[in-house]
Amino acid sequence: MRSIRRRLVVGLLITLLVALLLAGIAIFRQARTEANALFDFQLQQMALSLPAEPFSSVPGDHNDAAGLVIQIWSRNGVELYYSHPRTPLPPRAELGFTTVQTPAGDWRVYAALVGDNVVQLAQPMVIRDSLAVSMALRTLLPLVVAMPLLALLVWIVVGRGLQPLRRVTKALDARAPGALEALPEAGLPDEVRPLVRALNSLLGRLDEALVQQKAFVADAAHELRTPLAALQLQVQLLDRAHTETERAEAMRDLRDGVRRASHMVAQLLTLARQEPDVARAATAFVEVPLAPLLHDVVAHHAALAVARGIDLGLDAPEALAAISRVRGDANALQTLFGNLVDNALKYTPRGGHVDVRLVAATPAPVVEIEDNGPGIAPAERERVFDRFFRGGAASADGGAQGHAAPPSGAQTPDHTGDTDDTDDTDDTDDTNAPRAQGSGLGLAIVRNIAQTHGARVELFDARSGQGLRVRVSFGGAASTPLPVL
Amino acid sequence: MRILLVEDDAMIATAVMKGLRQDGWTVDHVGDGQRALDALSAEAYDALLLDLGLPRRDGIDVLRTLRSRGQTLPVLIATARDAVADRVKGLDAGADDYLVKPFDLDELAARLRALVRRQAGRSEPLLRHGAIVLDPATRQVTCAGAPVVLSAREYAVLEALLNRPGAVLSKAQLEERIYGWGEEVASNAVEVHVHGLRKKLGADAIRTVRGVGYMMPAPGTTSAEAN
């Protein structure tokens, strides 16, 4: 039975019926007690009115209606009168009131000495019981008759009581799929308001999530245009290529373009997966030893570092390494540190160094990644964590990490032109492009992962003064806003 | 025709430069708004190809500054921002045309040609001068109906001269038209190209104004002198 209304009506009616039944029983018992007293009194009176002398005439069967059985004996035990000889009553009773059980039911018997005779009157109890029953029924009957009316009334009242719920339902039904504004709480009964309030809070969170999603999708669609535009142009150049060299070069450019577009899509997916959802993420968290994880990250990037002529190293003192643990998602943490190392490698010039350092383990681990690249200007240190932010750099370095030095050579624009229209060999842009062209998502991913792990990411100048030092400190409260530096 | 490309994405910039150079354009490239303004105040360009989302100075900002300086060169915005509001804003800020990324190289070149043509006050796509007809779209030149084969540089010199018939262009102005930044310019390059053109189009096609430069004589004078 799913309907509250029906359940209420049926419940109320059953309760009412049980109450009536109990009341009936109570009335019956009460009525019987009273009837007993009354009839006993009547028996007594009748006994006293019977003739006291032997052989005096016995009044006719005026008591038949009351089902009375009268017996009279003389003092010496001779039966003088028996009104209903076939009644199965014990031949002799004690004086006073007794209740006698016979095959024909219970009898109330009263015996008394009246003059010289022993008089005994007996009456079946059934008479008294039926009187009590009819009395109880008479009292209850109007109530029983009124039950359907009562049910109808309850039905209507409950229906009206549930009206606010129906109003809320209708209001929700009439909504457009995107309409997530709060429902009005005014005028709602106390029972419904918590439900609506909870619903409103959910709607609010949904709205927020939806707005974030929309912004994300819009940003993503917009940002994907750039690699796609590059691809389209590169394909056209490939189409136009006349000589084998031109074709090979166009092919190489196109491959770089495809690689960049794929990288961007992959980063977008990672970012979408790492959107802060602390409640959900925390359930999958396990104890992760940090030192082996950092070791893996550095090992993973070693080949790249060697190829770029950069000295990449891990500095995790034994004492700290043994006890540094973080509650989290190992894969996400690997992505976090991987992105930071990747970024450092991307911007550090050949011959530079990148150090991953475990600097503290208690109360919670702190990791630093330091490079001696161009660094990030203090003014940009917060914005670099924004999605798709690319540093205010010149054309060759479009990644998130810009130049710390003030823009030099404002008077001398890039000399990116070729020396000859037909000479396609010289292209400094191309060799730099795939290297420094970031998706603008790496640090945004880092921020999201840090947030779900309750870690803080801060940017400082490198200790040597030249370069960037990224500090990841665990153990903060989840969803701590990024510090303003 | 020499244009300035302002684009912060290196891959797109490289591809656009290659494509436009194949079409005979001379292209300079800068990656941010500030450098774009610096370049525009230092050099004379026939058109500006402008991205909007730029580091240091936004494209709209560049455009407004450019127009407030009184520079009237045609500006084509090429950007990923495709909202109507953005287009309106771009055109109102002084752009002559608006192209949304991703775009087609051929369309880009055609729009640039149209912009340059309108700037020169012509709506007819062909450049005519006496018997000489130059089609910027196909880069074909005919003289008295017969096709003439020109090198890329020769073509650039001829186009520059035909765009301003009757005007004298200095050697430096012509060099600027046909060489981008960082390109090696031989000291007598312009003379060599003019010589080549005269051989193919007739000795009278281009007049030397000694000590000043070169010109295409106005049509009237040509016929008069030819007689």
List the helices and strands and how they pair.
The complex is a heterodimer of chains A (485) and B (227).
Chain A: H1 4-49, E1 69-74, E2 79-82, E3 96-102, E4 105-114, E5 117-124, H2 125-161, H3 163-173, H4 193-240, H5 244-273, H6 278-283, E6 286-289, H7 290-307, E7 311-315, H8 318-323, E8 325-328, H9 330-347, E9 353-360, E10 366-371, H10 428-436, H11 442-452, E11 456-461, E12 468-473
Parallel strand pairs in A: 7-9
Antiparallel strand pairs in A: 1-2, 1-5, 3-4, 4-5, 6-8, 9-10, 10-12, 11-12
Chain B: E1 2-6, H1 10-22, E2 26-30, H2 33-42, E3 47-50, H3 59-68, E4 75-79, H4 84-92, E5 97-100, H5 105-119, E6 127-129, E7 132-135, E8 140-143, E9 146-148, H6 152-163, H7 171-178, H8 189-201, E10 207-209, E11 213-215, H9 219-226
Helix pairs in contact in B: 2-3, 6-7, 6-8
